[in-house]
Amino acid sequence: MEKSQEVLKAVHLELNRKDMIVLGALLKAQNNPDTYVDFKTLREQLELDEGGRKGKDSLIYRSLSWLEQTGLIKVDRSEHKHGYNSGVALMSRVMKRIIKERISALAKDLLLLDKEIQLISDMDSEVIAAHMVARATGAQPLEKPVFAQGWQSIQKILDTRIYQNLEKNDVIRYTLEWYDQPEEAEEPRAAKLESLLKRGIELRGLEHGKGDKKRFHRLAEYYKYYRQMGYKVGLRMRLREDSTYQFVARNSEGIVLIVSESPLSATWFPRSANRELVDDAIQSFDRDYAEGLDISILRG
Predict the structure, then answer these.
(1) At 79, is the pLDDT very low, low, confident or very high (cuts 50, 70, 90)?
(2) Domain 144-294: which CATH class?
(3) How many C-beta atoms surround the C-beta of residue 36 within 10 A?
(4) Which of 115, 223, 251, 276 has the highest local Cβ count within 10 Å?
(5) How far apart are CA 120 and CA 261, in angstroms?
(6) Is the Cβ–Cβ distance between 114 and 64 less than 8 Å?
(7) What is the 3-state secondary structure (H, E, C) of 65-91?
(8) For residue 171, which of 246, 249, 230 has the smallest C-alpha distance?
């Protein structure tokens, strides 16, 4: 019993005394596991269990609502008088689901904790001290994230935070799913990218199979042309079922992260402001890019 109580606590399913009393009364009032008990019968059972003391209906309903939300009881609303039911089989299924969900959540927390431990372990204390001195003296002001909403505003962030002052052999990484502009809006952006290529900038594009296929293949034709001209340009397809980062990155210095597609919104995160986010996004991109199919072997 003590171990079971510890498990309930671990999965955040600690019933208070009132919830337990209501659940117990419901189980006692059922003639068999398939019986649905109406509220009047349940209240009468509660009076017996409480030595004749009548509880407030609102508190009983509150417990019933919570028990239904957790899945520990079923409610039949097919008739005017609702029926309530529970049992060992139902509770077993609910606990199996809750335990599985909790294990998954704990595993994610553990992964994040491992990353934080690794981050702390790898950091040189002298570097941290120098960074603190720089901040305290104002010698090296930290760049802050910048939020933008709407395509025009995002364009400005891309121009000032990503494309500005790039040098030969710098790398721009970007995903394609978030981009949803009409074809005529692509021409000025294509001109911008072409000017970057002529300066020796490398472009790496990545599609996960969720964006507009026509736009992807149209872009693929452009890129094949640029590649034939000798420019450093890559475009790959790496199918994924799950969601992943949508962004444009400047080397490993920072990313313009798409935070919402409706309305279209993005935030510029310099690495100095959120190192873990920027590093994780770029590493995820690089893994998918390495495993992706290049446009040279894609068909249709």
Answers:
(1) confident
(2) alpha beta
(3) 18
(4) 223
(5) 34
(6) no
(7) HHHHHHCCCEEECCCCCCEEECCHHHH
(8) 249
What pLDDT, on the 0 to 100 scale, is given for residue 211?
73
In the sheet where 37-38 sits, what is the strand order?
37-38, 83-85, 74-76
What pLDDT shows up at residue 138? 65
Give the other-Cβ count within 10 Å of 11's Cβ: 17
pTM score, two decimals?
0.52
Fold of 2-93: Arc Repressor Mutant, subunit A (1.10.10)
Residue at 139: amino acid letter: A
Q: Would you list the domain boundaries of the chain? A: 2-93, 144-294
